[in-house]
Amino acid sequence: MDHHHATPQPPDAGTAAAGPLIAVHHLTKTYETASGPFVALRDVDLQVRAGEFAAVVGKSGSGKSTLINMITGIDRPSAGEVHVAGTAVHALNQEQLAIWRGRGVGVVFQFFQLLPTLTVAENVMLPMDFCNTYPVRERRARALALLAKVGIAAQADKLPSALSGGEQQRAAIARALANDPPVLVADEPTGNLDSHTSEAVLQLFAGLAAEGKTVVMVTHERDVARYITRTITLADGAIARAAATVESQGSPRRAEVDHA
Amino acid sequence: MLSPRWQKLWRDLWLTRGRTTMMVIAIAVSIFGVGAVLTTYSTLTREISRNYLGTNPASATLEMDKVDDALVAAVRGRPGIADAEARASVTARVQVGPDTWRPLVLFVVKDMGAMRVSTFRSDGGAWPPPTGTMLVERTALPMVEARLGETVVVKTPNGPQHQVLISGVVHDPALAPAWQERMGYGYITPATLAWLGEKGDLDELKIVVSEQVGDAVAVERTARELAGWLQQQGHEVHEIQIPPPLKHPHQNQMVAVLLLLLIFSLMALVLSAILVATMISGLLAVQIRQIGVMKAVGAQTRQIAGLYVVMILVISAAALALGCPAGVAAGRAFSAALAELLNITLYSQAIPWWVFGVQVVAGLLVPLLVALGPIARGSRITVREAIADFGVSQERAGGRGLDAVLGGLRGLDRSLLLALRNTFRRRGRLLLTLGLLAAGGAMFMTGLNVKAAWGKNLDDSFATRRYDLEIRLSRPEPVESLIARISSLPGVKNVEAWGYAPTALARPGVIDVVRTYPDGGHGSFSLRAGPAETTLVKFPVLAGRRLQPGDTDALVLNQLALAQLPDVTVGDTLSLSLDGRGTAWRVVGIVREIGPASAYVTTEGFDRVSGHPGSARSLRIVTAEGDLVARGQVIQAIERTLTEANVSVAMVMADSVFRTALGEHIAILIFSLVAMAVVMAVVGVLGLMSTMSTNMAERTREFGVMQTIGATPHTVIRIVVSEGVFIGVLSWIIAVPLALPLSALVGTVTGNLAFRAPLPLVVSPFAVLLWLAITIIGSAAASALPAWRASRLTVRETLAYV
Question: Which of B2, B14, B297, B300 to probe the A interface (max A CBs under 10 A)?
Fold first, then answer.
């Protein structure tokens, strides 16, 4: 199992297993627009436990991306609190957020967002480099191991532009895992992939959840129920419904109902 | 193996090698400029000391009747005197063609092997020269039109013509180059002087003071004290010559050139710094999403900033590697050129460490300092701001007013209208680019405007001198017979007789002090007398009035004379020395003239005080024919006539020769101005190229969208190129008025340094139109490449662009 080198775990990460790994309380986000304030999230409460694979669904503009941007610290709440693995994310400044994000959460984007001038392996090594996790001489081996895990070890030394969309997204997942964060957050990771590749990516996330990672994924995919443990439906910035799904792939599944 | 972030740095530099190269060139150009100027400055200041001060130049020269060895020995023992030596000098003439002569200053030295003051050294041939031969200064060989071992005909004021062998060549670093002054310099012994028909006596006492050598006032005090003592001893002292202490005759020119170059190279540094800021902003704009991604995977602001700081340092180091040796090489070449101007030998071209230090600081720190702002802004951006996908950029174009104006333009092609609106989308960047191009353009035009101003200054000056020849006689001659002889010659249209005498500010009971250098030309001050109603000179009046008929005590000074008499104003009474006597004059006007320091009086006034009324020492002649050959024939005829009349000619100065001499003095300055103008143009166009490529990179997605709604690649190119040309023309509109105060400033500085008068403000239409052409062609070319690239992207590529 991977372990961090010379890098402290996020605060009270060790206690995360006891309670919810992600806890959102009375979260509100309002954007100032030319036509007046726009409320993207409205008093949202949400808890996600370790090992869950949660899908955040909803119509365009319902607040899905805003919600996960709050969880990853990419955006700041107008009101409310966000706790991830014991860290009060809403209270961190930008520098603290960068350090926490690099070690505590892996982010996967719809358009992969691999750096075009780095090879696939270098892209995966980049978070270790920035966060100074793992000894320098071990980083490449770890990157190769992660690439093998996502099934593209053979592409390690290619530039992202030489890879298919699915391979790029796998590389992006490997990068998200680089510092062995307890939480993976993905914003429409299959939105730019064909159905076959999407399936493979979803299986990958499910497998990671089965290994103990907590995965929160915004998706428009209809047929994801067999991979996820829980669906969080957003409508007009509020949680409309949260429901447990059927057990799949033999992973233990927990369900918890949140009320808007 | 480099870590991924540094790998990214290198690959980004390589991927954007066009932009990287531009930045390297821009910084290298400024390092080059600063390096070249400082190399020249450090080399020349040291070598001037080694050359000019190495001659132990006389602090003062006392004109006496006779100076013998006993007197020299006594003077050496006087307080405040470090050394002394007896010399003489005579202005003779050397024949360079049939009835064609040039001035030849003969310096007389008793023992060249034991010189102590104002020394010079052998550069080949005999040392010392045998009697009947002379040594010639190395820069004077072209002027005497002979080589070592050849014979020339020399005539002194009081002697017959003699064939004189050039037995050796010397280097005299205390003299300006002879080819600039259009005269010869010869070195002879007292025996040769006597052989040439002059008295063989040494009549100059050259002294070097022992204290406050560089202080003109202290030198004058010591020289006056010595003169007083000499008079007490029964010796007559006619005049004291004190040239500017420790200052080579052409040092002001050198300072003017270096000052100008320094101003321009500092401006180039500022421009390149702006360019670096523009480029780094552009680079960050292009990489903003990547910054967002790096932050999303854990990069901290300081790590991102560190990446770009190192990038700037790498670029600067490359520029330093390029610009520093090139600057040093150019500085050495420039030093060599200026050394010729100063007639000095560069014994060493070693460059002090501080020159490299300044280049390193200028090259590494200045770009870094200006880039810090954009880097701080770019690296502080939040992940959300960086990777938020807004589709096509939504920033506003110009203000509503501007949109209204643009929208109201009837009959304008829609794509052109789009280009105009695009121009104002990034106003901060637009302002930087306009500033860069306008500053570059203003300096480019300034270079050419000042060049034109020099030309106009010369044209104006020569337009006020409506004669072709000036003939200086060795002694006063009767005016009537002179006029009668010369005016009857074919080819002579008009002739006026003028009085002429060296002069100085006279103080009762005090010996005259003049600022003349040993060559007799630099720093000289003379009294000139002509008919009040003369039609041959009409100098522009700076203050007061011109001379009028009936003026007998009125005096008009030119601005160079005024510079020697700084407290004098129109209305003052002035006492000028004439042959050792004080003569009183009323200053009625100040005129502008290019030439030596002169005071003008009427012939009547001059006759009143000269002691030889009805005589003249100068002839100003208008020839009928305009071409040089015909004028040469007229000069020969005049020479023959005067020789037959036993009139000794000291100097013939054709206007064309005077103009050539002036041109030689400023050629290096003009060259420097134009060279710097070209550098400015290069930096300006590089700036526009950078802006356009940044604009294109940012709007790639927009071009994709345009292509999906029917825009052809041709349309994209047209929009982009129109935008570039529009920026170029806009910068030109700003640059033209900006060039005016800059041209006035540079013209004032250089004019004052060279002639003690500012150059006129001249706007060269050629410069204005040339810069317009450069901006249009340059901006079209600068935008064509990014436009072509943008037009080649497929819709899929543009929409997927990160």
Answer: B297
